[in-house]
Every structure is written in C-alpha cells, then in structure tokens.
Input
Amino acid sequence: MVGSVETRKSYVYSNGGSIQKNQNICNLEEKLDELRTILNKADGDPIRIVGVGAGAWGSVFAALMQDSYGQFRDKVQIRIWRRAGRAVDRATAEHLFEVINSREDVLRRLIRRCAYLKYVEARLGDRTLYADEILKDGFCLNMIETPLCPLKVVTNLQEAVWDADIVVNGLPSTETKEVFEEISKYWKERITVPIIISLAKGIEAKVEPVPHLITPTQMIKCATGVPIENILYLGGPNIASEIYNKEYANARICGSEKWRKPLAKFLRQPHFIVWDNSDLVTHEVMGGLKNVYAIGAGMVAALTKESATSKSVYFAHCTSEMIFITHLLAEEPEKLAGPLLADTYVTLLKGRNAWYGQMIAKGELSRDMGDSISGKGMIQGVSAVGAFYELLSQSSLNMLHPEEKKHVAPVELCPILKMLYRILITGEQSPQAILEALRDETLNDPRERIEIAQSHVFYRPSLLGQP
Output
C-alpha cells in the first residue's frame, strides 16, 4: 500500500489541477498561434499589441490580454501608452499605498523588483507622485481599489505605436481624434496596415452637410486613413473592476468578418465571453446612448433616496425614448434590444455616468467642474447628451406630433433628453427638474412613444453616415 487515502486523494486533485492548467496553457497558445498565422507573423517576430489610453477599461482590457498571453513572450508583446506626468494628489497616493500594503502578492513583486523603496520615499516625502510611476507597476489611476498585473507602460506615443500590429483605443471619444491624428504621423512609412479595436462609447454630432453622428471608429478612420475593415468596436455590459476580478461578463466585437471572428476567439476567456457582430457603427452609437440616460438615472436615485418606484418610472420612460431613438438610427432596431438594455442596466447599477448623476444631484459635483473627474476619468455621457440633443433638434428630421398634429423635431418627443440637456449643457435647470419632467401630468404613456416609432418608417440611414 502506497500512502494514505488522503494522500492519494491529494495527489489526484493536485495532478488533476496540473493537467487542467497545462490544458489551459495549450489552448491559449493555440489561439495565439492561430492569430499569428492570420497576421502572417514569422517565428521570432511577436504580435505587438498596444493599448492607447490607460483609463479603467483600457487598462483592464490590456491586463486581460497580459494575464492570458503575457507568458508567451517570444510570440506576443503587450504594452500600454499613457500621457506622462499626470499628478496624483496626496490623498489618492496614500490610498494607493494602502492598497499596495494590503496585498502580499503585490508587495512581493515590488520588493523583488527593488521598487518598493521609491514608494516608501514617495509616501513619506512631500514630492508629487505621478500616475505614470504608479502605472509602471500596474496601477490604474481610475481604479485605485484594483492593482493590475504588471504592464509595460510607455509614455512616448511614437515608441508605443509605430510598429504595433493591434492598437486598442482606450481613450475617451473626446480625445480619440486628436491622439490618432498624432499616431497617423508615425504610420506614414508603414507597409502593413494595423488592426484597431476601439473601446470608446462617446459620440459627436455634425449638422452639415446633413445631420449625422460621428463615432470613434469613424474618427479613427478619418484621422489615420486605416480602412474601416481594419477598425472594430468592442462593447458590452461591463464594469471594468469586476471584469478584472473575473466576474462573468460578455461583450461583442463588431466590424468586418475578416477580423472580428478571429479576434473574438483570441479575446474570449472562460469569464469573458466575446461574440461577434457585423453592425459596427450602430452598436457603437448605442454604447453612447445608454450613457445619456444613465446620468438621469443617477439623479433620480439620489433625489428620491433610492426609491425603487421612482427609479422604475424613470426606467420605463428612458427605455421608451431609447427605443424611439433606435428606430431612427437602425434599420432593424429589434436586434439591438438585448445588448442595449443589458448595457443600460449595468451602467445604471454601477457605471460612472450614473455615479456622476448622483453626485450632481447631491451637489457634490457641479457642471462647471467639467466632465473629467479625478478618480473616475471621463464622464462620456455628458458630451453624448449634447450630441443627441443637437442631432434630434434638426428641422430636417421633423415628424408629425401625434397629439398636437403638427410637425416637430424628434427631440420634442424625448422629454428626458430635453431636460438632461437643460441641466447638464445649458444650465437652465437644476437637477431637481428631472423629477418634475417625470411627474408632468401631460407626459404620455411610454407605450405610446414606442407605438409611434413602430408604426412609422423612421429609419434615417444618413444619421449614421450610411448611404
């Protein structure tokens, strides 16, 4: 007899875990090799993946790839770019050190790299700590509760992107155009065309030559000249910190079939399921639309002290407006219902836009402070409110009002959007006015707005730049 029952059980469990681990490594390497073949990478030439922008979702996305594929250093190189020299206030720095000190694995890594001393000095001294110093050891300024895995951080944009095979846009939509115009200067001599995956969910509106929305993928195309088949959008009902902590989540990567299917397979993990879809621009716009109404949801929650009844009333009206707007923008809007509602739901529960609405309603933030908030990053719903209002105010889109029997701009049938514009953009109203809009006795049943959208040929392909 060799060993006790307990010993044999322990061996079986240990050996089974080892076999499973080895199988997982083999599966990852197989997926990596498949993508390398599609990209025509020669032996010894790694796939170069660069995250541009180190906000919460951009950092987590890069960290997911690093966690999975960073072990295959001869086959893939993963790094992240951010602007250098962004100061972190003392309170944020001290909080970061508390996080570091509470994590034994993080401490071991820092000590092993002889990096802990500089943190001690920074903590005890009076000098300013900069975000790129934190990020070099895997910390994201907008996720101070979540230490990330070590990533190579580059603060020189040219160094980061000039030879990149895959560029992940983790920038806010308001910064995307400017940064990618800079990137285009470094790609003038390129022979191969890079792949770009955009995570941004904001939009802009233009009224000339016809009213239309501009999405981050369209900004990137115009800025760089990269063909649209090489630009994709990835989005879904995701909270960055929860995904990093391996909460189950799913997302869609949208774009040309040539790249979306192999990339969906490459990015898929047991806790992060990635599907693919051909409808790039519409999914991208819907990602921006839900941020608009998430801000209002935060206001309602704060003003009613989390009243479930009030929040459900708001949800009924905001979803009816979203359905109404979707019928204008999409040829087959019913296909977007599931993804749009799921993304809206998670953003209302825990997203930064809902948080921003709460802080505005409580008076802890003011619209004069702008939409870039320390510790949270860019609140993209603010600019999206302006963009959708401007677009839907155009007289060229006029439609017959069902009760007043006169032609009005579509925004006149979206009272919540109108009120958010007056609160956040023009400052004509206080946050309290969002409740007044909900309690207006003349407000139509949300069902009627949906019926209007479903009974008319609303679809305007020109709004998304479609022929």
Q: What stands out?
A: The CA atoms of residues 79 and 412 lie 47 Å apart.
